[in-house]
Amino acid sequence: MNRGSGKSSGETLIEMDRTAWSSGEENNGFHSSSFSDKESFQLENAAVDKQQQSKDSVYFRDGLRRIDFVLSYIDDKDGEKKQDRRKEFEANLQKAGLNLETEDKSESEDGKTYFLKIHVPWEVLATYADVLKIKVPFKANDIPPKKEVPMSWLFTPYRLPDHVMNPEPDYFTYTFDKSKIDFFLIEDKETFFPPSTRNRIVYYILSRIPYSKEDKEKKGIKRLLNNGTYTSAFPLHDCRYWTRSPDDNCESERYSLYKHWARFSCFYKEQPLNLIRKYYGEKIGIYFAWLGFYTEMLSYAAVVGLLCFIYGVATFDNNIVGKEICNETIGGQIVMCPLCDKKCGYWKLNTTCSSSWQSYLFDNTATVFFAIFMGIWVTLFLEFWKRRQARLEYEWDLVDFEEEQQQLQLRPEYEIKCTSQKLNQVTQEMEPYFPLTSKCARSFLSGATVLFWISLIIASIIGVIAYRLAVFAAFASIMKDSPTSKLDVVGSLITPQFATSVTASCINFVIIMILNFLYERVAIKITDMEVPKTHLEYENKLTIKMFLFQFVNYYSSCFYVAFFKGKFVGYPGNYAYMFGKWSGLRNEECEPGGCLIELTTQLVIVMVGKQVWGNIQEALVPWLRNWWVSRSARNHPESLYSRWEQDHDLQSFCQLGLFYEYLEMVVQFGFITLFVASFPLAPLLALMNNILEVRVDAWKFTTQFRRPVAAKAHSIGAWEEILNMIAVFSVVTNAFIVSFTSDMIPRLVYLYVYSPGTEITMEGYISSSLSVFNISEIPLANTPEDGENPDWFDSTNMTTCRYRDYRYPPGHEKQYKHTVQFWHILAAKLAFIIIMEHVVFVVKFFVAWLIPDVPSEVKARVKRERYLIQEYLHNYELEKLRIQLSQSGPNVEQCTCPTTASTPMKVEMLSDCLT
Length: 915
Prior knowledge:
Helix content is 52%, strand content 6%. It is α+β, with helices and mostly antiparallel strands. It has a 4-stranded antiparallel β-sheet. It has a two-stranded antiparallel ribbon with strand order 4-5. A two-stranded antiparallel ribbon has the order 7-8. A hairpin with a 2-residue loop joins strand 11 (570-571) and strand 12 (574-575). Helix 14 packs parallel to helix 27 and helix 25 packs across helix 27 (820-850).
């Protein structure tokens, strides 16, 4: 191909088109007529009654030219500059070959909005399909389909009709080449490119058209939207979602998506990924493919987690430790030291009876198995997703997409702000260049801003911890005679520890939501300030900033409970304080049953709260906004309420819409992997949420949002690396949770080393795990105030109290020093961490090595397609040469072929091409 011959080094394709139009010459397939010969003929012979034509149509008034894009604007009284910009912009659109048709404001429902409808003719489509390297079919697929899986009839209730799952025949494809039109399978030029491809091409053109005669750098629909020249820009849905289009030529794919995908009654059905991709583009299709696969894999983790929970319930009566705590003669006779200074009195161990039983449901021998299983599950999930992604890349013509499109992704913002240029050593052409000093300064400022906000999170977490320490004493004082203790069902559950944990978790959740709301805007601004070169680079930078912040914001409170609470307490007479003794904020202790149940509470509140809030925000808010905007027009018949007005009243799908969807799911992925050892039911909660999430997102895209501009993407991008990072980190966190947060290791050490007698039993574990302290040695600052001790406490008869630790008793030569059992337990904990990590990592690497990233059938299909492309191209060129020779006549003595191929000149594309 020889695109752009004779182009100067600084001239863009749009500028070439404008030059050709102004001179009346043909350039790259553009002609001075506005439409193709076929379209002109149809228009001349069309007799469409404008009054009889329904306004709920996706065609121009002639009923022939399809509306590929719509721009809307309001003509302000003081909008002369905007009017001039629109006039110049629309003139340049026409010079670029686009057809325009304007709906006057008198025709609109509100009486003040103009709608500019855009149609892209075949010649323009063909040119830009060539430029954008869009793959199109050239031969029907001749590879025999796979044999059906045995017993596949069992899955019939979950399947969708074949015309929905596979809306297009299976073809071999090749990059479109305008000079080889007859090489491709083109039956009808009007329907050859689907509407999603057409709107992608239009948006590509709109992003590069200048709107100022004086300053050629002022261009693109984005800037016109930002400065208010246009109020919106969007492609049209093809019909109303609840009914088919009355026009037989319209695909009504939106209706099919709603009927088979977006309704909540379809929650058990498979997703029509090919139809989603055809209607919304590959980028949105990849997201729903990943979300569906993640939900499918969650079902296995949910089943195993549920079995672990059932095991805890089934072995509930075998919990000897819980029985000892609840026993009046054992736990009822053990006097525990105060949990806080002054306001906390002495208490009996059996008051924690309920929490010890709750803790056992999640802290049992199945916990270790589940932690190891999840380490392997996450590897299987990532490896099988790579295979699924590789299959989609081939089926959706995304193989080699990144390499082909990398040069077409420059953001207009980058080009505008780059005042200098430099020579590209690879292409030997001048390209926009951002000075290194400016780039470093912007990156430094951006990094400092991120660190400041992360510090703000840490400060808020410290504030919540201080709240816990201060409020615990108040709850302990208030609730010793609380009427809630007399309640039959929940009275025993509402303890000072529980009240403190729940209120602190709720406060922490509110802080998380507020900081998220503020930081989202900051992250976008500092990413814009960095001026990334491409859209891919922009999204990756924003992804890293947002996830780093969300990681600290959502998980820091869980990390505190899991790895810090109860670990630096000290002992009676020598307690550790958060800010020193002057603060009076004594570090929190864990209950005798451990901190695991509190970690579970924290995880449930933050995880479930985020999921509920996210669904409300995603579904209810857009619905309410659309209801309010269209309140005066929603009762209009479709003949009056036009298709473009209906879509204009919907919510706009922002550029970062998918970014927030991925972020929500990846944060959830962190919850169910990083802390899953503390709550085996977390995958089940995530599964139920995701089943709902798929349909909420589908319903939202189909009914509440304007149709997004179709975009290509060959993978989930930077999120894949983040998921890998979380997967590795989760092995470490779960090993530490089992070792240091759970009470599993101390119990096992006691069972096999310190259990009295010849029979292995857990009897006596509670007494072994509690150290003794002499009450008379407790400093006055730690002694309960008068009236804080319960009625049963007798200071004359009760001379000692117990606390959770392994220290020598008073009177011993090493009194209050750690015992040998403490060091044995610590050694066992560290050994377990090392063993578990090595076992899981070895299995992970073996599984990753065993499962190839690309299925063998996909490799075979790729090779077959490449072979056919070479063969067909060879035969195509031979056939063209044969025809040329036959047309030359019998007197041609010799055919001279050029010895060197002319090098096609590269067309410079200044773009933020959808990726």
